[in-house]
Amino acid sequence: MRKKRDAEGTKFKILKCAEKLFADKGFNGTSIAMISKASSLSDGLILYHFKSKENLYKLVIERISAHYLEVVTGPLEKETSIEEAMKTSLIGAFNFWKNDKTCQRLNLWAYLENKEDKSANEARLVEKLAAYFKSLQGKGIFSADIHPVVFLTMIIGSIQFWFRYKKHFLKILNLKQTGDEFDNMFLNQFALMLQSIIYNKTEK
């Protein structure tokens, strides 16, 4: 049992060091030697556990995306009202991108290095959300005129765009809000916009 605990602890240490380096320098800018130096573990031990830098990178992405999957889809699977579930899911997604700077940087590096092949967890996320909105369409709650993928792209893209450019908006428009005030304004108004789209059909 002792060896198993030590092995898991070693793997976790390697993953955390690799995660930081991939976020700071990208996949191409990170080497096994750099991970070895940061973790104080040998190249051989790293490769023993993870086989290659590519496998290590994939596991780093899977680990982060597993957390994102739970944050976003968890509320939708609970027996609450649709409005409450979607609100909790939206807030979870927003706060994930707000607080997880590592994920933001990994996402940008993936775009720059053309490594945007989605992980298994990211694929499950899209599948679950698309199925959820399709089920709402079947119940007549969500307009059948809007494709679930278009709606998901609008949500995910808007949140990522917000955190990439909100400082520019504050500066260029000479706004006096603090970062948190600006975030809350965006989140509240964005939620209202989404609700108006979802319930538009039933309100006519």
Describe the 3D structure.
- This protein has helices at residues 2-25, 32-39, 43-50, 53-73, 82-99, 101-112, 120-138, 148-172, 179-198, 200-203.
- The chain is mainly α.
- It has two domains: 1-51, Homeodomain-like (Arc Repressor Mutant, subunit A); 61-203, Tetracycline Repressor, domain 2.
- The N and C termini lie far apart (64 Å).
Q: In a few lines, what is going on in this structure?
A:
This protein is an all-alpha fold. The protein contains ten helices and no strands. It has helices at residues 2-25, 32-39, 43-50, 53-73, 82-99, 101-112, 120-138, 148-172, 179-198, 200-203.
Sum up the structure in keywords.
204 residues, mainly alpha, Arc Repressor Mutant, subunit A, Tetracycline Repressor, domain 2, 10 helices, 0% strand, globular
- How much helix, percentage-wise, in residues? over 70%
Residue-averaged pLDDT = 88
Task: Return the CATH class of the largest domain.
Answer: Mainly Alpha
Number of strands: 0
Number of structural units classed as domains? 2
CATH architecture of the largest domain: Orthogonal Bundle
Q: What is the terminal-to-terminal distance? A: 64 Å
Q: Helical stretch count?
A: 10
The CATH topology of the largest domain, please? Tetracycline Repressor, domain 2
Q: How are helices and strands ordered from N to C?
A: HHHHHHHHHH
Uncertain parts: none
